[in-house]
Each structure stands twice: as structure tokens, then as C-alpha cells.
Design brief:
Layout (H helix, E strand, L loop, with lengths): L8 E5 L15 E6 L6 E2 L16 E7 L8 H11 E12 L4 H8 L21 E2 L5 E2 L8 H10 L2 E8 L2 E2 L3 E3 L11 E8 L3
Parallel strand pairs: 1-2, 1-4, 2-3, 4-5
Antiparallel strand pairs: 5-11, 6-7, 8-11, 9-10
Amino acid sequence: MIGIIPAGRILEIGAGDYSFDYLRKPEQTWMKVDIESPCDFICDLNNYDLNIPLSANSMDLIICTEIMEHLLWPHILLKEICRILVLDGGAILSVPNIASLSYRAAWIMGRLPSCAASGNLPRKLRSTAYEIESGKTVGGHVIDFNLKRLVSLLMSGGFKLVKLKGSGIIWHRQILPYWLVPPSLASNIICLAKKVEA
């Protein structure tokens, strides 16, 4: 889904530790926003008054992978994404899927899935919180997503779902490829959504 990016103006949200900008073509404008450098804009994405310093209708595509589950108010970030995108602009989003086959296996064995919401518990308590380069701890997953919750969030935020994929089943490594597993049971849900008229 991310392999071919025809858009001209691209914003990547939360690209600090892994960015897709290696796919950038010379004619594209590619900007990044994250909680610390290196990026073009530093923003606290977990701020209820979030305001990414870009004009309305200024981006053709926004990439936001594995970010929404860390936010107390993912709908606020989605509102900002909608504001910044041009009409019919695309958003590529991905989230861990709490209803995945691997998570279901963990629940059955009496274990919490590795990516289940754990807030800001210390790492030693199997939290999803992590430390960034500056030494600051970033809060772990605070919201669990399944396919229905993600689609509902997108629809309520001014988007229509265009394309949906799953990552397959991942448990420390790829166990089943994406084409064998429906997105509703995959370890991660990946989608392309388009901004629609309000």
C-alpha cells in the first residue's frame, strides 16, 4: 500500500524511528512531524489542542503508522489530518489489531497480548511504553483498535475507506502472510482512507 506514492505533497506523522521517505521521488515535497527531532515540526501529538503548523488543504497524502494507539484522543489527530488534507487527499493509517489471531491466542493462554493497551506502566511490567533518543519515556498504547473501531473512527472523522489490508500474523516474526489472513484477524490493520466533503 505504501510502495507507490504518486502524491506530490506528503506529510508523515510519527516518523522518528522509522520513515518511509526512502520512497520519496525528487518532485515530491515530504515533511515529517514527531515529538522530537529529527523532523520538520515538533508537536505533542497527545495534546487535546493539537495544531500541526501547516495550512488547511495543504497536503495530498498523510502517512500515520502505529501512532493512533498511543494517543488519548486519536480523533483529535484525525481531525487535524482531515484539516490539512486536500479534498480527496489520502491518509495511510495502521494500528495494531486487538482482535488478531495472535492476540486471541495470547488471551486464551491467560496472557496479555504484547501490544494491548498498557498506558504508562513501567517497561518491566510488560508495558508498551518506550524510551526515545532524548531519554524521555513515551507513553504506551492507551487505546486498543479492531477493524470496526478503526472504520468507525475514520467515518466519524470525515473519511471514507478506500483500501484495507492486514499485515498477516506476526509473532516476533512473520508467521502467516497478509494474503492468507483477513484484515479483521491480522496482527495490524492497514488502510487507505480519503477525505470527503463534510
